[in-house]
Amino acid sequence: MSRWHRNSTTKRTTLRPDRPVGVVSDSATVRVAVDAAGSDGGPEVAFSGVRQALSRDPELRVSLVAPEAEFHRLDQWPRELGSRVRTRAAEVVLPADVNPARALRGARDSTLWQSLQLLADGSADAMVSGGSTGALMVLARHLLGTLPGVERPALMARIPSLHRPVWMLDLGANVSVDARRLLEFAQLGNVAYRTIEGHAPGVGLLNIGTEPGKGPDQIREAARLLEASEAINYVGFVEADQVFENRVDLVVCDGFSGNVLLKSAEGAVWLMFSELRNRLRGSLAGWIVRARLRAVHDRLDPAAHNGAPLLGVRGTVIKSHGGTCARGFARALELAAIEARRNLVAELEAQLLASY
Amino acid sequence: MSRWHRNSTTKRTTLRPDRPVGVVSDSATVRVAVDAAGSDGGPEVAFSGVRQALSRDPELRVSLVAPEAEFHRLDQWPRELGSRVRTRAAEVVLPADVNPARALRGARDSTLWQSLQLLADGSADAMVSGGSTGALMVLARHLLGTLPGVERPALMARIPSLHRPVWMLDLGANVSVDARRLLEFAQLGNVAYRTIEGHAPGVGLLNIGTEPGKGPDQIREAARLLEASEAINYVGFVEADQVFENRVDLVVCDGFSGNVLLKSAEGAVWLMFSELRNRLRGSLAGWIVRARLRAVHDRLDPAAHNGAPLLGVRGTVIKSHGGTCARGFARALELAAIEARRNLVAELEAQLLASY
To answer: Which residues contact A164 (CB under 8 A, 6 or more apart)?
Structure first.
């Protein structure tokens, strides 16, 4: 523990994971544990993102978990921000491609394990990590447990669309799923969307056509289950291009398709901006439209949409994109705070219990 | 039959589907049968696309298949172009969402059936349609048969990437495939790529990570089969975003993932241009960069990449995107001519026979 931890004046928050459903205050004190070493950008990006998030949210408290040698970065921070930070030293930083089983067996002193532990023992209300998705899923399940009936957690991400962002799940490691799992994703996503965005989503199933007979068996069967579900506003099949037109608010798919959809869009946007840069570089026209291009880029930029809730575990866990910038990391913290304040995990549990 | 057919002076080409492998001439006479009514844009787009293609390629001959009432469009054409067109009347136009089984049972007089029939009986060297992919696959298989060992045909499409286009298959209806099928896609695509582009492709398997242990069983098993194949230059797993960076030349995947990748990219590019238009509309800056934006759009535009070879059937069949414009339709005809002239089907057959 560093002096920052010992000197910390952080008071215990009144928010607890077991508080009753429906008690929501977006300005209540909230404590987020941060794996500050797991991202590709290392502690520098994470510390900088935490500082941004603390500046914007006066009731945010953060427990930073990183190797002891990293905490000197806090020396330069304004006293007001530093007073809202606790530190916990952990010397092992798991590599991005760590084998999840190895993360579980060997690495009790990893920044990932220790930050999840803070959430598990009630010292934090939420947790953020930019480390390996697989290791995060395995350790979160091990240390927090899963909600009733949930076999494996799902990862939900936000992507830009025409009028408002669309949420999509699964983006985790659930690569082959049956109809029952797709229904479960829809149930988890439905509650999470409502909690985060404040209204019920129109839910679509990702498919390769919109006609009823299209696609593989498990997707057609999932459509029947979703149609029969009273809790879910099921809209129908949605094709990948329609996701960007706000045909639905929440897209349900297996983890493989979700990953392909997200990364394909990222790749296409990257290619477009490369082309635009090449054709405008050094020109007067390029100079004139620079600000507008930046505005479009910012709106479509993955960093603006960073922060993927891991749904189905007993705790508020946010996966930050490994390659995000400080601004993106701050965005993941903000999402963690929203979820914890609005008590998403208790909402999910109540909803799942009601559906059985 | 219209007078255009009766008056036609089109001579029989010397190119035959059964000519020996290796006889290639990119300027030889080639006859393409065109389903001129199946696209979303109807005969207007198809006729206009055919006219563009005929203007550019003096050795191209076209058999237009459409309802009799449509052939009046040819009256306005220059005599030189019209003299290279035969017509065949077919009164049934299958809707885009036709059930493939119904297309097979009932619709012998459809434009799709009749244009494939011209290819099947040797009156054409290649065939182009913008109609239903499912109906095209079923009818092509029924009327042309498949190549040795091929169970179901695959659809291969070209997508824009950083330095040069990337080809990808399957984009057809093969939604759940095993490792053996993925290997078959790679074999078909490998020969098709080499024939069209003139050099051997680096081949990648679409996956959600590049490490060896990533992804579902059938993809990891397919990787082992591809590594063992001497005919294929297997590069490794490729993630959806890397497709746009030219990490490989040919991407192999199941039809579901391929569809998601392609449509997600289309959707993201559409969203970007919507945003750019909104922010530049009516402004001086917008006026100044208009030509450059159009150049970027044209390079990424699906129309520039229209024309998806249906691989594995005994005949050169090109699927044109249902919603393409005349320019895109012409592009599909050009691709049909290239494949027929370079004798792709015989090349594929020889390669498949050698691999068993």
So the answer is: A246, A249
